[in-house]
Specification:
mainly alpha, 0% strand, 166 residues
Amino acid sequence: MAIHELSALLWRERELLDLLTFKLEEEQLLLTAGKSRWLPHGTREVEQVLEHLSKAGLARTVEVAAVAAQWGLPAESSLSALASAAPDEAWADVLSSHLNAMQQQTATIKELRDSNDQFLRAAVRSTQETMADLKPAAGTYDAHGRTGSHGSTGESARSRFFDQQF
């Protein structure tokens, strides 16, 4: 029966949403600890979970269409519509439970995503500011074409490839 398969797929999708939440929290811990070395690994793991979620979503769409056909609903019916039209109160409760849990998980994931985005933006800003401070100050030239900064011996402070003082 298609409803049993749909329920199993919804459980799998919820497990994947839990895993995504974990991976995003893991990524956040890396960001807050300044462990940027491991961010590519964390990001790759998040992308892998998202890929699995995408496949699970497609499978759910197929099963929703099958259940909707059995219950006389349009193939593109939502979980909410299926729960409302369920011929059995137990299935209405099961589908509503899945829907509510997935909505809560999605809200948590959005919060984590936004928080991680803010951490990443702050890290980029900090890196840009640090890099800007590392740039040498632009020198000014005097009337003779020398830079305005002179060493203690009165010589112009300039870059040299070789030490000219023996």
